[in-house]
Amino acid sequence: GLHFHASWLKSKKEYRDELIKFIEEMLTRNDVFFVTNLQVIQWMQNPTELNSLRDFQEWKEKCDVKGQPYCSLPNACPLTTRELPGETLRLFTCMECPNNYPWILDPTGDGFSV
């Protein structure tokens, strides 16, 4: 997948412009789709041939957003993890910042191993 942070796209207009050009070029192809993680899972649960994807029912569902967003200004948490000594990682969360950066053996960031 392609993952971009908003600050990277805002830092230089050229980055955003090139990404838009790339997306526009990809959208001209009939075998490229921009989908969410949920849509990938839906396709995995119901694999569908390329020629039938335009009518793939699961991808036609629309999200009905109601109410205010849970959090419009998340905490930017500069955190460390013992798996990457000396590095500071930034976690954005609407919850309280954990003590450590969550990792495979410390999924909650409390410093405990599972």
From TrEMBL:
<protein>
    <submittedName>
        <fullName>PUB43 protein</fullName>
    </submittedName>
</protein>
<dbReference type="InterPro" id="IPR052740">
    <property type="entry name" value="CE4"/>
</dbReference>
